[in-house]
Amino acid sequence: MIELPIMSRAKVLVAGDVMLDRYWYGSTSRISPEAPVPIVHVNDNKEVAGGAGNVALNICSLGARADLLGVIGFDEAGETLKRHLENINGYFQQDTNAKTITKLRIISQNQQLIRLDFEENFAKLDKAFLQNCYQQLLPEVNVVVLSDYGKGTLSAVSMLIDKAREAGLPVLVDPKGTDFSKYRGATLLTPNLKEFEQVVGYCETQEILEERGFNLIEKLKLDALLVTQGSKGMTLLHAEHKPLHLAAHAREVYDVTGAGDTVIAVLACALGAGQSLMQAAAISNVAAGIVVGHLGAASVTIAELRRTLQTRAAEEVEKDIRVSASSRAESEAIQIEA
Question: Domain containing 148 — which CATH number?
Fold first, then answer.
């Protein structure tokens, strides 16, 4: 049975692209006469923090401390995002030349019909404020998470990794793009399979995935690599250990939005609480199975994790009993035949 550590021991610094996720819900019963698209009668809506903000919320929902660094604009979306993150230790660079990243999803009958993105890249903004905050916070935390959505907040990601490693801190990176060389020296990268294959090429088999993964670890001087594979689970590759493949545990999948945020958040909390990387990966795999059962970006609570682990433990005991009973029956049958 997987044991949950005391997550409150973790103190995690999260830096990356923060965004506001908006959801409009409605029913669809006819097609527009203006174009071959469904008409959605909107009757409900929801707003939540996404991106690095969702990572920080996941960390806090597990009882750990999260410090969050990000860029927002002087706009309505930015003020709304700050309200949704008011319980987080947030250090936001508000810039007159920036617009808060906003994603609007239109959903009907539990299906996402379209996503509208409102954003501008932050790469050219002077982020001295964020970098100063980052260095001041490093002595107060025990894990660093860099949540990269390719929006430019982490344009100096190499420097951020170097500073954290100089401070003796593990650095977990949720990567983006086809150039992973900028993450050289990080402790762990957590790409999904599509992101991984965009860098190393199509992996026809698990063996090819593992081989190319270890090559990437050596090339980028990483400690480890965690490749999430959706319904196939996830694979942890560590420079000093054999590959560890963890099967998926989702019973029902409604939405994978934010699943990667949950995985890296739980990893960070477990590591910060003293767990090994292998143990942390196993816990994050369970958490991923929970969060994809929710619609939209969601946070996993410590109560959900504990309840799921207890259920799984009970199922394993029942399985062992069935196997044991079957073995006894086969043994008795052999004795009778003899």
Answer: 3.40.1190.20
Residue 6 contacts residue 273 (beta carbons within 8 Å): yes
pTM tops 0.90, yes or no: no
Q: At what angle do helices 277-291 and 259-272 cross, to 10 degrees?
A: 150
Same domain for 123 and 224? yes
pLDDT tens-digit map of 238-263? 988 999 999 886 555 444 556 889 99
202 and 247 together in one domain: yes
What is the residue range of 182's domain?
7-300
Looking at the structure, do residues 45 and 150 belong to the same domain, yes or no?
yes
Q: How far apart are CA 67 and CA 95, in angstroms?
A: 20
Q: Which of 11, 87, 95 is nearest to 49 (CA)?
A: 87
Q: Which amino acid is at 185?
A: G
Number of Cβ within a 10 Å radius of residue 291 = 27
Annotated active-site positions, please? 261
334 and 234 assigned to the same domain: no
